[in-house]
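Hi there,

I know you've been waiting on this one. I reran it after we fixed the sequence typo, so this is the corrected version. Both the input and the resulting structure follow.
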Amino acid sequence: MKPSEHVPVMIPTNKIETQINTLFMKSRLILLLAGAMLCAGITSQAGINTTYIRTEGDSATNKPAPSFQLKDMHGNTVSLSDYKGKIVVIDFWATWCVPCLQSFPAFQLTVDKYKNDPNVVFLFIDTREKSENAEARITKLLEEKKYTFKVILDEKGEDGAQNVTYKKYGLIGVPTKYVIDGEGIIRFESIGYDPRLTDQQAADNLAGMIEKARQASGK
């Protein structure tokens, strides 16, 4: 059975752009253009609603995960290589991304499920932030929602955009999550947030990916 992927696309609400919304639903080409819009940061603009477009595809990738060295919220260096031999779940997100925030309750359920398992690690890579107070917003979010996430911060490139690791992974938007096995191979990629699932269903789906990656690497 091939899992579905859900790409968040932000669409304005006036009459003309409502017609564009219809084209999004009918056209694969327009979907790709929407992905490009996500990369350009259009989703950070005000006055827009969130629409989810369903695409079919096998989320298994079986390719090496790009390496990275990033700072956490305390200034400590975190490398993907630090977790060699472990199952690593990576979530790319941003504080302005509504679907990212909607996915977090299910993520917390999964983090809680594996909190006593030393062979499963969760890394939340904050990326493509636009505001200077993003770190303060992250701290407030974690404290208010009581999320026990290990947040690490994407690097800024030469152009000043916080997207170095985002680009390494070839993302088209956030949220995007990966499940990496103990050998450093990406076993699953999931794009977007599925609003039809309960938090528990989404958590169970992610746990299923983790267990399959564990079987693949014997971890």
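Quick highlight: Residues 199-217 form the longest helix (19 residues).

Best,
R. S.
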